[in-house]
């Protein structure tokens, strides 16, 4: 009876305040109605915000997995879901993030309903694409042969550069900014037009020397006119380091989707960003994950990397090249490990190549561009681009194996085939990978030299044929005449390496079929 009197008194008190205004009337109606039939209640009892979570007190009958609508002070609407219920306390995870939420002025409406989605048979064959993303195509040329030739970057792709302390990743980033340009579709020329290409460069946690290097390099080479520069120094507040890449990407989205430019975003150093994220997480007393990094670092990095791409109805694109330094050259560290899961490949900067004075020290074997196939080929770069890249990769991989074998058994124990591969490896690194800091390499020219030298060695008899040599004097003259011819396209280079691979795999191949191949379209 005492409980009934208390409830009756609360109802009477609420009804007596109806004349006090609209807010009192709504509160009285919320108290008197049945919660299960009309469950929508609005609260302004936010007691705290922790990462993506909002904590509310004094909530009447909160339900697990209930959908909550949040209204920010500026009128922005967001949605969330109840993750935990403890008495009158509810923990809500906000889908759109908690940025801008004011604990005192944010109102939360509990709908009493769970998450629902409309379904239909029309959904079959229609993948969900809420942002209307377009598959990345066409190529951005950097002028670095190891990237353009074997790890081509597509517009709208996100591909990181894995480096380490003491390696020239800053010089590579500056060179990409100087030389990057668009490749016109259906033409093998570069488009340096300032009207449709821009670069957004963001440096996080760099020292004064590095900041001065980037700024002076952009100014001296005239690329500052196309570059939007964001610099966060090592002595700046940690929270600025977390904001810097988001400011840069917001600027890139404006240039890409409003001004319809093709934007190249370079972020360095993402390791400094991850360490700043760990510092903020420790200050919040959150449960640490691997090596002290927060458990949500994968999600946080994805909010940065996934902003690259192309949007339907817009001509612009955002291509990301984040640069990170691997602690102790450890590629299994959480930062490169999680980055590799999110992005579409990686470009690996190798310390051994750097110690041998090869610049840029890019190791093409662990490097990968998963979207290269959509950026090259007929109508975009060259018809034989993929074949040449694959053959170069195969020859270089065999050369590295021979180099490792040489360190064990010595050069005297190597066969003539092994020596030829070893010679190719040296010429490939010296003529194809290596280039000057201010040199734009046309990879279709530099790639032909090492492969052609291998094939000339074959014709001079320095390589054993796997089949019996037989033929007339006419065929022998044709073979000797081949040595004076020069390749005019990558098709010839592709054919060189294809012949060599077949020979070294001991397949049956008649050398006197070469004159017929020389007259084919591949050599024209």
Automatic annotation (TrEMBL):
Residues 143-369 form the ATPase F1/V1/A1 complex alpha/beta subunit nucleotide-binding domain. Its main location: membrane. Keywords: Cytoplasmic vesicle, Hydrogen ion transport, Ion transport, Synapse, Transport. Residues 375-440 form the ATP synthase A/B type C-terminal domain. It comes from the Eukaryota. InterPro entries: ATP-synt_VA_C, ATPase_a/bsu_AS, ATPase_F1/V1/A1_a/bsu_N, ATPase_F1/V1/A1_a/bsu_nucl-bd, P-loop_NTPase, V-ATPase_su_B/beta. It is a peripheral membrane protein. GO terms for biological process: ATP metabolic process; vacuolar acidification. CDD domains: ATP-synt_V_A-type_beta_N, V_A-ATPase_B. It is found in: Apical cell membrane; Cytoplasmic vesicle, Clathrin-coated vesicle; Cytoplasmic vesicle, Secretory vesicle, Synaptic vesicle membrane; Melanosome. Residues 46-112 form the ATPase F1/V1/A1 complex alpha/beta subunit N-terminal domain. The keyword Calcium does not apply. One of its GO terms (cellular component) is apical plasma membrane. Non-catalytic subunit of the V1 complex of vacuolar(H+)-ATPase (V-ATPase), a multisubunit enzyme composed of a peripheral complex (V1) that hydrolyzes ATP and a membrane integral complex (V0) that translocates protons. V-ATPase is responsible for acidifying and maintaining the pH of intracellular compartments and in some cell types, is targeted to the plasma membrane, where it is responsible for acidifying the extracellular environment. V-ATPase is a heteromultimeric enzyme made up of two complexes: the ATP-hydrolytic V1 complex and the proton translocation V0 complex. The V1 complex consists of three catalytic AB heterodimers that form a heterohexamer, three peripheral stalks each consisting of EG heterodimers, one central rotor including subunits D and F, and the regulatory subunits C and H. The proton translocation complex V0 consists of the proton transport subunit a, a ring of proteolipid subunits c9c'', rotary subunit d, subunits e and f, and the accessory subunits ATP6AP1/Ac45 and ATP6AP2/PRR. Belongs to the ATPase alpha/beta chains family. This is V-type proton ATPase subunit B, brain isoform.
């Amino acid at each position: 009876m005492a409980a009934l009197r208390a409830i009756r008194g609360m109802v009477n008190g609420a009804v007596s305040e109806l004349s006090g205004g609209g807010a009192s009337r709504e509160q009285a109606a919320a108290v008197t109605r049945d919660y299960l039939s009309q469950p929508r209640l609005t609260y302004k009892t936010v007691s705290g915000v922790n990462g993506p979570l909002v904590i509310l007190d004094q909530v009447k009958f909160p339900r697990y997995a209930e959908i909550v609508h949040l209204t920010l002070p500026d009128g922005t609407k967001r949605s969330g879901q109840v993750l935990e219920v403890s008495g009158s306390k509810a923990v809500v995870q906000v889908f759109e993030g908690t940025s801008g939420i004011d604990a005192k002025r944010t109102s939360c409406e509990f709908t009493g309903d769970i998450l629902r989605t409309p379904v239909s048979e029309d959904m079959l064959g229609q993948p969900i694409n809420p942002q209307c993303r377009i598959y990345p195509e066409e190529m951005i040329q950097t002028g670095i042969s190891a990237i353009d030739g074997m790890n081509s970057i597509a517009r709208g792709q996100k591909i990181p550069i894995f480096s380490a302390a003491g390696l020239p990743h800053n010089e590579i980033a500056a060179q990409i900014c100087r030389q990057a340009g668009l490749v016109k579709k259906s033409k093998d020329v570069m488009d340096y037009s300032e009207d449709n290409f821009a670069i957004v460069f963001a440096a996080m946690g760099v020292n004064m020397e590095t900041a001065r290097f980037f700024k002076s390099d952009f100014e001296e080479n005239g690329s500052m006119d196309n570059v939007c520069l964001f610099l966060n120094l090592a002595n700046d507040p940690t929270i600025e380091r977390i904001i810097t890449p988001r400011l840069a990407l917001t600027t890139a989205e404006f240039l890409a989707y409003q001004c319809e430019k093709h934007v190249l975003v370079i972020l360095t150093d993402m390791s400094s960003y991850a360490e700043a994220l760990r510092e903020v997480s420790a200050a919040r007393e959150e449960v640490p994950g691997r090596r002290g990094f927060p458990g949500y670092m994968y999600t946080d990095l994805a909010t940065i990397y996934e902003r690259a791409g192309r949007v339907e109805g817009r001509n612009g694109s955002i291509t990301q090249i984040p640069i990170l330094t691997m602690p102790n050259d450890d590629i299994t560290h959480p930062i490169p490990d999680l980055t590799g899961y999110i992005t579409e490949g990686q470009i690996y900067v190798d310390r051994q190549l750097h110690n041998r004075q090869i610049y840029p020290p890019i190791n093409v074997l662990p490097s990968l561009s998963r979207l290269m196939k959509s950026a090259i080929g007929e109508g975009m770069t060259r018809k034989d681009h993929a074949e040449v890249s694959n053959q170069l990769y195969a020859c270089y991989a065999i050369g590295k194996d021979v180099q490792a074998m040489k360190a064990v058994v010595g050069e005297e124990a190597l066969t003539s085939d092994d020596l030829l591969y070893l010679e190719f490896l040296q010429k490939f690194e010296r003529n194809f990978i290596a280039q000057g800091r201010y040199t734009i390499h046309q990879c279709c020219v530099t790639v032909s030299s090492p492969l052609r030298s291998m094939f000339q060695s074959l014709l001079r008899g320095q390589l054993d044929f796997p089949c019996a040599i037989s033929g007339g004097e006419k065929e022998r003259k044709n073979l000797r005449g081949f040595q004076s011819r020069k390749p005019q396209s990558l098709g010839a280079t592709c054919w060189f390496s294809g012949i060599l691979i077949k020979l070294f795999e001991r397949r049956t191949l008649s050398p006197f079929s070469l004159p017929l191949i020389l007259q084919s379209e591949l050599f024209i």
